[in-house]
Specification:
hydrolase, Rossmann fold, seven-stranded mixed sheet, alpha/beta, RMMBL, 22 strands, Metallo-beta-lactamase, Chain A, RibonucZ/Hydroxyglut_hydro, 13 helices, 2 domains, globular
């Protein structure tokens, strides 16, 4: 087996891993780096082109977050013979999110916010869609390459991360011995508000490709989802009672729908006023509709729950109308979760940050160099100013800022339990910054010394 990370391995972005199994070439996920633009945001496909012994027969996409699927059209343009495998719901999300990405890239260029042309357009996406093959979790499917010396079978497992997300088990024979490789992708062992915890292979695996997002977050393992939801409800109520509004920056896929489910429960339990307005906008509303339409055919804690059952108002488009909405206490659930510049959450944050009545509550992972990460660090340090948008410059930091752990990722102790459960001979650590991967590596080696742990650098082949 040959493993090569084609994206950045020292941060979270452009998740894309080349795996060669006995003559079959695969890529696991095909993401873009959300902090980069244009070609700089892409995986290093040139590594495949340069090596005559490397080639891609199949791509397996585990879920529809852009850091896992955003470069798929570019992959298909450069390797037009590749077949793409994903769950049926991820296919539906791709048909929604990739055209939206193309439109956003075009608009950024037209508005002068980017110097790069779009990586793909909507017409190209229509031409690629016939290459998408869908499979349900628990269903075996072939990913054997044309030059594969033995059959390679794949099977999806519900990952517990977002709608349609999956880990994937790859099974093949090499030197007369069956080999099992499991890629967790983004995974969550525990239930969220809508989606239950993940499923995993029952038998041991030989190689575990393990995410490590929360490896450097000791606080995540010290709390529970229920306690965080209660703390969130109390904090939101406190802001509303003083006449303020709450901004909840959230990823359009997954976190936004989970937050709305939490708000629904808190309203029903009378923690929050039943009539407090909840504003949403953009793509997350279309995604919520897909959550509702698939609630009886995808894993759910309560299939009867509908996201749109939570009464929502559309965020006004005009700035003056938004200012008028802020005259009364409300909750704003807006993307992006990391508050990237020019996003709806970033623009709303600029309106709230200088007013001590208001609050910005972060509910998911935020890179340290993102506006959300900088805001949290500034608040914790007691800073008086924050830069949310470079063009606007510094603003006074007077609003309340807090973080609540509603993550769709397993905390690090649960990831260690997954290692114990799957009993791999090798663990390859991915999807985490350097500190997170180092903590995971140190603790796997301490508790399971028989396991070989690898932290490959981007572009460096690892042969097992």
């Amino acid at each position: 087996m040959i493993f090569v990370a084609l994206g950045d391995t020292e941060a979270i972005g452009a998740n894309c891993y080349f795996v060669k199994l006995d003559g079959t070439g695969l890529v696991l996920d095909v993401g873009v780096d959300p902090n980069e633009e244009g070609p700089e945001s892409l995986p290093r496909f040139e590594l495949i082109h340069r090596n005559p012994d490397w080639y891609i027969d199949h791509a397996i996409v585990t879920h529809a977050h852009h850091d896992h699927i955003g470069a798929l059209p570019v992959l298909l343009r450069e390797f037009p013979h590749v077949l793409v495998h994903m769950t049926r719901v991820t296919r539906q999300l791709a048909d929604l999110l990739l055209p939206a990405s193309a439109r956003l890239q075009r608009r950024r260029l037209q508005e002068g916010r980017s110097s790069y042309g779009p990586l793909f357009d909507e017409k190209q996406l229509e031409g690629y869609s016939y290459l998408y093959l869908t499979h349900e979790p628990g269903q075996d499917f072939s990913v054997t390459g044309l030059r594969g010396r033995s059959p390679v079978r794949a099977r999806f497992y519900h990952a517990g991360h977002v709608l349609g997300s999956a880990g994937v088990l790859l099974t093949h024979e090499e030197d007369g011995r069956r080999q099992r490789v499991f890629y967790t992708s983004d995974t969550n062992l525990r239930p969220q508000a809508i989606i239950p915890g993940g499923d995993y292979p029952e038998e041991p695996v030989d190689v575990l490709i393990l995410e490590s997002t929360a490896g450097a977050d000791p606080e995540a393992e010290r709390t529970t989802r229920r306690l965080e939801e209660e703390r969130f409800g109390e904090a939101v109520r406190r802001v509303l009672d003083r006449g303020g509004s709450v901004l909840v920056p959230a990823f359009a896929l997954g976190r936004a729908q989970e937050v709305l489910a939490v708000i629904d429960r808190l309203k029903r339990e009378k923690v929050l006023p039943a009539d407090v307005p909840v504003y949403t906008a953009g793509t997350m509303r279309a995604i919520a509709d897909l959550y509702d339409r698939t609630r009886f055919v995808t894993p759910r804690l309560d299939p009867s729950f509908e996201v749109f059952r939570v009464e929502q108002r559309r965020l006004p488009r005009r700035l003056e109308a938004v200012r008028q909405a802020l005259a009364e206490p409300a909750i704003y659930v807006l993307s992006s979760g990391m508050m990237f510049e020019r996003s709806l959450s970033n623009r709303m944050a600029q309106l709230l940050v200088e007013d001590e009545r208001h609050a910005i509550f972060l509910v998911g992972f935020a890179r340290e160099d993102s506006p959300a990460g900088r805001l949290l660090a500034a608040a914790e340090a007691g800073a008086e100013e924050i830069v949310l948008d470079e063009q606007r410059g510094p603003q006074s930091l007077r609003c309340e800022v807090a973080r609540f752990r509603f993550s769709g990722h397993s905390h690090r102790r649960d990831l260690l339990r997954l290692v114990e459960r799957l009993q791999p001979r090798h663990v390859i650590l991915v999807h985490g910054d350097e500190d997170a991967r180092e903590w995971m590596a140190d603790n796997i080696q301490f508790f399971y010394p028989e396991v070989n742990v690898w932290m490959p650098r981007s572009g460096e082949p690892l042969e097992l």
